[in-house]
Design brief:
Largest sheet: 6 strands, mixed
CATH architecture of the largest domain: 4-Layer Sandwich
Number of helices: 9
Order of helices and strands: EEEHEHEHHEEEHEEEEEEEHEHEEHH
Distance between the termini: 50 Å
Number of domains: 2
Strand order of the largest sheet: 6-5-4-1-13-14
Strand content: 15-25%
Number of strands: 18
Radius of gyration: 23 Å
Shape: globular
CATH superfamily of the largest domain: Metallo-dependent phosphatases
Structural class: alpha/beta
């Protein structure tokens, strides 16, 4: 009796956001530390295939240093593990054309990059092999779908939700081609990817947005059929399963992309696929290389106790300046204080921290408590919020959801190539 081959081992990671800054502070040290961990993990876990499910870069025109970091990682990974298959899909932050530009060089190295939706669904299918070179699975590498990628129903066709219908139609075509390919080789397992916002998932409002049409267009989990052995998703930064299906998962981001995500359990997902049963899924925690500090720990406080706490702050020196802890300070004032930043910086002089955000809340005499924080500048707002505020200055009602907001979202999602990314600037990154 022939022994069964060892399980095929996949590592799923997502939302690297290379090139991102946090309130103007570089994240390159954190990215380098994560990629070193990832290289070591590929080796120690004897990984056969690496799945990177979108938002490789933080913007559609990433800095040269961020691009160099990505290609340096791919080169080192392939030198260390020549038999490693790598599958990369584009996310809503990525330029599809920029991601796919080096494909002629990458494809012979078994690095498969799918930035955009091709006309032929067969071009999305990627074979996965094990260390012996044996074909073990097929990946339906579906990237982030933009509105322009979706078919529309014929006039008179009864469709409840045009957008979901369009996504479902794309998926049905892709999975039909994938099933046929799997059947050619005796019934191989089918793996799928996606970069999307799904129904029933946990969203970080300050650092992620509902893509592909906004609030009303979270996608149902049944878009990924039950015969998918594993579904590797990207876009949401908090790792989580979807719809009660443990094998349909967001890997999450490798480290917090805003201070609101500092308590997320950042991880990669190791998936073992064998002929004996369903896929086995195991979370691999990613070490935190930079701490996130807040003064005070919760809420806001008057300047005197805040400054006293800052002067008493005792923080150990980090291995490098760009690995020093981030610090958020929230102060409550009765009136504007032009000298506040200078006083905070003086209190922090010589301390190995990086002040990433100084926020102010104003006390209201009527309530004796905190009011809304001071109005942020435009750099701190998501483009949709800027649009809504501009609308409010001209019209008494909110912008219509189905017309004006839908058109604005379509405009954001249509940006690609060398156009500016449809995302908020560095103050609070948007997934």
């Amino acid at each position: 009796m022939t022994a069964s081959p060892p399980p095929l081992r996949l590592l799923h990671t997502s939302d690297w956001h290379l090139g991102q800054e946090l309130h103007g502070l570089s994240r390159e040290g954190e990215h380098r530390a994560f990629l070193e961990w990832l290289l070591a993990t590929l080796d120690t876990e004897q990984v056969d295939a690496l799945l990177i499910t979108g938002d490789v870069f933080d913007s559609q025109n990433p800095p040269v240093a961020a691009q160099a970091l990505f290609y340096e990682f791919l080169a080192r990974a392939k030198r260390a593990r020549p038999d490693l298959d790598v599958v990369v899909i584009g996310g809503n932050h990525d330029s599809a054309a920029r991601l796919e530009a080096p494909n002629a060089l990458l494809r012979p190295l078994d690095v498969h990059v799918v930035g955009s939706l091709p006309k032929e669904p067969e071009r999305l299918l990627v074979p996965l092999t094990d260390r012996s070179g044996r074909l073990r699975a097929v990946v339906a590498a579906i990237p982030f779908l933009r509105l322009a990628d979706l078919p529309v129903p014929t006039p008179g066709e009864d469709v409840e939700d045009t957008l979901v219908w369009g996504v479902r139609t794309v998926h049905e075509r892709v999975f039909a081609a994938a099933r046929a390919r799997c059947a050619e080789f005796g019934g191989l397992p089918l793996i799928a990817t996606g970069h999307c916002y799904m129904v029933g998932t946990a969203l970080s409002e300050l650092s992620e947005r509902r893509i592909l049409g906004g609030n009303q267009h979270a996608l149902p989990v049944d878009l990924f059929p039950a015969d998918c052995t594993y579904v590797a998703l990207g876009h949401l930064h908090k790792p989580q399963a979807v719809g009660g299906r443990e094998t349909v998962r967001y890997a999450g981001s490798p480290f917090p992309l805003s201070v609101t995500e500092k308590d997320y359990p950042h991880q990669a997902v190791l998936v073992e696929i064998s002929a004996e049963g369903p896929a086995a899924v195991r979370a691999l925690p990613i070490p935190r290389t930079v701490d996130y500090l807040r003064v005070p720990r919760t809420g806001a406080a008057a300047p005197e106790p805040v400054l006293a706490e800052l002067r008493a702050l005792d923080v150990a020196e980090a291995p490098a300046r760009d690995l020093r802890p981030y610090l958020e300070v929230v102060v409550r004032l009765d009136r504007p204080s032009p000298s506040l930043r200078h006083e905070v910086e003086q209190a922090l002089e010589g301390k190995p921290v990086r002040l990433c955000r100084l926020a102010v809340e104003y006390a209201t005499p009527e309530a004796g408590g905190p009011a809304a924080a001071e109005t942020p500048d435009l750099a701190g707002l998501h483009p949709e919020e800027v649009f809504e505020r501009a609308w409010a200055r001209l019209y008494p009602d909110e912008p219509p959801e189905e017309t004006h907001l839908a058109a604005f979202r379509e405009l954001l999602e249509s940006l690609d190539g060398d156009a500016p990314a449809a995302s908020a600037p560095a103050t609070e990154p948007v997934a």
